[in-house]
Amino acid sequence: MTAPSARPRRRADAERSIARIVSAARTLLSADPSATTDDIARAAGVGRMTVYGHFRTRADLVEAALRDAIRAGDETLAAVDLAGDARGAVTRLLASSWEVVAESAALLAAAAEVLPAGRVHELHAEPVRRMTELISSGRDQGVFRADLPVGWLVSVVQYILHGAAEEVRAGRLASEEAADTVTKSVLSVLTG
């Protein structure tokens, strides 16, 4: 009887360990994209070998941290009211998106360094779907431009968000001005 109960306990312990490691990676990489696996292990309260027992490579760990950030961000963005006027919906979505992107700008930089080309984009499938539907809705309403492909416009929105986050990190854009700057820039692109 003791053998079956020991096995689920190890699984639960491993899951808690993984959660601590991912949380530590997300926190550290969001502050410093060059945070090492040793730094993350220390912050998680585990040994380096424990980290590598769950994540074969630093890239696997970075991807797990990015997935966790995207999941949390998606929960925030899913709560945004996108009904009604597409222009107002984009403004509301950008306000929430900006906070999510700003929080993970350094984590995205870490991911871009270690993940294969296109992987960061693949991980953003749900936010891309949401923005694609919103831009398409704005086109149907006649408030967004129809002379450029929707996929291109979604990419431009992402570039603006990530670019603003980098500008804030570099000290060239005040964080309190970023949301308004992002919104004005995106709306100018979408309404061209």
Automatic annotation (TrEMBL):
Keywords: DNA-binding, Transcription, Transcription regulation. GO terms for molecular function: DNA-binding transcription factor activity; transcription cis-regulatory region binding. Residues 36-55 bind DNA. The keyword Transcription regulation applies. InterPro entries: Homeodomain-like_sf, HTH-type_TetR-like_transc_reg, HTH_TetR, Tet_transcr_reg_TetR-rel_C_sf. PROSITE patterns: HTH_TETR_2. PANTHER family: HTH-TYPE TRANSCRIPTIONAL REGULATOR BETI (PTHR30055:SF234), HTH-TYPE TRANSCRIPTIONAL REGULATOR RUTR (PTHR30055). This is AcrR family transcriptional regulator.
